[in-house]
Amino acid sequence: MRSAIVVGAGTSGSIVARRLVDAGVAVTLVEAGGYDTNPAIHDPSRAGELWHSAEDWDYFTVPQEHAGGRRLHLPRGKVTGGSHALNAMIWVRGAASDYDAWERGGATGWSWADVEPVYDAIENDLLPVTDDYALSPIQASIIDAAVQEGLPRNPDYNGGTLDGVSQEQVTMHDGRRVNTWTAYAQPIADRLTILTGREVHSVIVRDGRAVGVQLGEGEGSEEVLADEVILAAGAIGSPVILLRSGIGPAADLTALGIPVVQDSPGVGQNLHDHLLSPVIFTTGRPVGPPQAGVSVTQSHLFWRSRDDLAEPDTQPIHFSVPMWGELEPRGDDGFTLMAGLVTPHSRGALRLSGPGLADLPEIDLAALEDDRDVASLAASVRQARRIGARPALAEDWGAVEVYPGPEVSDSGVEDWVRRTAITYHHQVGTCRMGTDPEAVVDPRLRVHGVAGLRVIDASVMPTVPTGNTNAPAAMIGERGAQFFLEG
């Protein structure tokens, strides 16, 4: 029987494990975190409790030079379900042009024509994707205000046109979170060998072939062997494991005393992410606290900040609570229109700080390094301010903008963006697929230069799609599993 190790029980890894087991492969699924026993995972209203929890890797960037010198929090799931156990469950395919650009860039076989049927299959199989739920009153009014601002109401942003304001399509059922762990892997857990609470230090490579993984390090380490190894640890975890395995830029590895197994200069490079910046309102009419089973975000919009753009470059997401973050609270009730940038030009990198599990990666998003990103996000903030001033919010709810607030003029929004931007938790690109020398994996997700090793997760995306990355990560899981089974 063919055997495989899948590292990571998140969005992609859970799908891969299910598809391989169904095809008769003996699968060992390794998850650094534990099982999803925290009740906050399953109640959409409590997602905010999961940041900085035991289920969060709780990564931070290095100080971001172009974002006020701040270290940005990168929540990543350390639990069965991965980041799909922490996120807002928003399902966005992206634009067809995103995938056609991947194809043109060397990711052969990843055009929209190739991936659209996979999305159709996912949404009609195990994973429920729905917008059939009641909108909170404030969310309905936010949509009305966006229409008053001149945006079209888009009933299906996954139907081929992103532009407009929409109710979010989410992976929920009966007020409960559904992720790929609960939908794909958990139902067949008795057919898997599952190792939880076990962190993979590195891939074991012998004679140019991956033959297993090393769990832990030092005296407590353990080797687990299989015919093939699949990394599905995400855009941070997968490159970190490759680098500790000696697969990466040779000079960087040598400097850390890591023997070079494969000089792969692209590992950890091409890191990029979507960004958000808050516009927060208090209200005279009470919005009320989060309700059990109801997500605090139910609507978003896609908008082009310039008329010459082929696709939207912004995706604000709307929250039924004031998202104060590091800002001083200025009230007890309200809502947030979180301006969003979804076509970043800035590119950063991830590097190791040392060869051990305790050596945290140095993560540099280069956030807002490119002035085009600042311009787009600032335009989104200005739009959010206008929406909040429309009658559906200003009159019907008594909405008052408290951040940025009247002390920040429209010309000062760029500075506001640099001082407040946070990530949308959509890191991609660090194990980019392609056929050029900088590509880490080929279009069938095999690591260049190392047999028996694949990366199947968001890290392989050449560029981030226009929208949330959970759906693309699921699609990559399905396609990667098929590639594996085809040999």
UniProtKB/TrEMBL annotation:
Its cofactor is FAD. It holds the Pfam family GMC_oxred_N. This is FAD-dependent oxidoreductase. Belongs to the GMC oxidoreductase family. SUPFAM superfamilies: FAD-linked reductases, C-terminal domain (SSF54373), FAD/NAD(P)-binding domain (SSF51905). InterPro entries: FAD/NAD-bd_sf, GMC_OxRdtase, GMC_OxRdtase_N, GMC_OxRtase_C. The lineage of its organism: Bacteria, Bacillati, Actinomycetota, Actinomycetes, Micrococcales. It comes from Microbacterium aurugineum. Keywords: FAD, Flavoprotein. Residues 234-248 form the Glucose-methanol-choline oxidoreductase N-terminal domain. It comes from the Bacteria. The keyword Cell membrane does not apply.
